[in-house]
């Protein structure tokens, strides 16, 4: 598994961005990700669209690698851990959870996290309805500017559009950072990219399979 990372400092805290679509908060030993959308591929298959089960396998394999690589003690999911209803992909997640029994999982619920409480309890997931405050950060699902606070969120699946010679274009996922917020890329690779969020004063930490690029 090819791996690249980039360290940034926000409000005195060291954060490690990686090209596997998550970040690691060193002080808290916390792996932070957003928009895993577990169950999305099975949801499409259920409705007659042939999406490979390998999509879910690959996402969970990357997550396992990151937990092991950083020796993470907790996983903070900034919304949309799950995609829709309980389906066959949940069996894969159940197996994955059993492989990481000591990992604390905290979910700030997103717009897709609509499962019954008993499902989250069965996976030993601690749920926050709207936000999680761990100073100096506030974790929320949908990006918003909060006075005097730094928010970490997801939801929009940020990306950058790069125009090259010959009218060629390429889209890359990115971490979008401003003075008051950080927006995570979607962890699942089975998602689109929003490339029109050109908020002023943003820095875009885009990445490929081998490297980071700053815009």
TrEMBL record:
GO MF, one example: hydrolase activity
The name this protein goes by in its record: Ligase-associated DNA damage response endonuclease PdeM
SUPFAM superfamilies linked to this entry: Metallo-dependent phosphatases
Gene giving rise to this polypeptide: pdeM
Enzyme Commission designation: 3.1.-.-
Taxonomic source organism: Psychroserpens burtonensis
Swiss-Prot/TrEMBL keywords: Endonuclease, Hydrolase, Ligase, Nuclease
Matches recorded under InterPro entries: Metallo-depent_PP-like, PdeM-like, Pesterase_MJ0037-like
Superkingdom in the source lineage: Bacteria
């Amino acid at each position: 598994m090819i791996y690249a990372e980039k360290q940034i400092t926000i409000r005195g805290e060291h954060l490690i961005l990686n090209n596997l679509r998550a970040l690691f908060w060193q002080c808290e030993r916390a792996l932070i990700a957003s928009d895993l959308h577990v169950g999305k591929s099975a949801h499409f298959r259920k409705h007659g669209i042939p999406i490979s089960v390998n999509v879910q396998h690959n996402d969970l394999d990357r997550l396992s690698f990151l937990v092991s690589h950083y020796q993470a003690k907790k996983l903070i999911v900034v919304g949309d851990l799950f995609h829709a209803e309980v389906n066959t992909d949940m069996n894969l997640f159940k197996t994955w959870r059993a492989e990481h029994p000591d990992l604390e999982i905290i979910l700030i619920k997103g717009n897709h996290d609509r499962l019954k409480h008993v499902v989250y309890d069965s996976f030993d997931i601690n749920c926050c309805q709207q936000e999680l405050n761990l100073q100096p950060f506030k974790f929320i699902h949908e990006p918003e500017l909060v006075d005097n606070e730094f928010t970490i969120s997801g939801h929009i699946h940020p990306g950058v559009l790069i125009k090259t010679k010959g009218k060629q274009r390429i889209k890359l996922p990115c971490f979008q950072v401003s003075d008051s917020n950080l927006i995570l890329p979607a962890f699942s690779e089975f998602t689109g990219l929003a490339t029109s969020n050109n908020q002023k004063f943003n820095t875009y930490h885009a990445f490929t399979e081998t490297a980071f690029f700053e815009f």
